[in-house]
Specification:
The termini are far apart. The longest helix has 15 residues. This protein has a 5-stranded antiparallel β-sheet. It contains 3 helices and 5 strands, in the order αβαββββα. By secondary structure, it is of the alpha+beta class. This is FAR1 domain-containing protein. It comes from Lentinula guzmanii.
């Protein structure tokens, strides 16, 4: 939809630039001890007068980013002490940019299918800044 339509239909967040959005997203990751990964980037096709320019979707790292499915068959059915990282988490952030507007609009589906905070920390990557500080 257009900028005005999206504002009225679920795109309730806004940022002045992509840098502002990335800062906000990093804050969410730190606050809830989660990690987001880029899922896909879309541009409108076949329309001369596009209502939006770019739509980027980020998903929780505990969910699937839609990569290639491997056909690996497990040889043994062992129980593991550490549970699997993937939990089919429905959490996602959608960010859209529009022609004639410097502002970005976003939709944040913040529902998770797994625990947040310290319980989720073992499934997230250590940020580069923290890794350097530890060294």
């Amino acid at each position: 939809g257009s900028f005005e339509w999206d504002q009225m239909h679920g795109y309730t967040l806004s940022w002045e630039s992509m840098i502002d959005f990335e800062d906000w997203m990093k804050g969410e990751e730190r606050k809830h001890c989660i990690e987001f990964r880029r899922h896909k980037s879309e541009t409108p096709t076949g329309s001369r007068d596009a209502l939006w320019m770019c739509k980027i979707t980020f998903v929780c790292a505990r969910g699937s980013t839609g990569g290639r499915k491997e056909k690996y068959q497990r040889k043994f059915d062992w129980d593991r002490k550490i549970e699997r990282k993937f939990a089919q988490c429905p959490c996602r952030i959608v960010v859209k940019s529009y022609p004639g507007h410097s502002e970005l609009l976003g939709h944040y589906g913040s529902e998770h299918s797994h625990a947040l905070g310290e319980e989720n920390a073992r499934f997230t990557q250590i940020p580069k800044e923290s890794r350097h500080a530890i060294e």
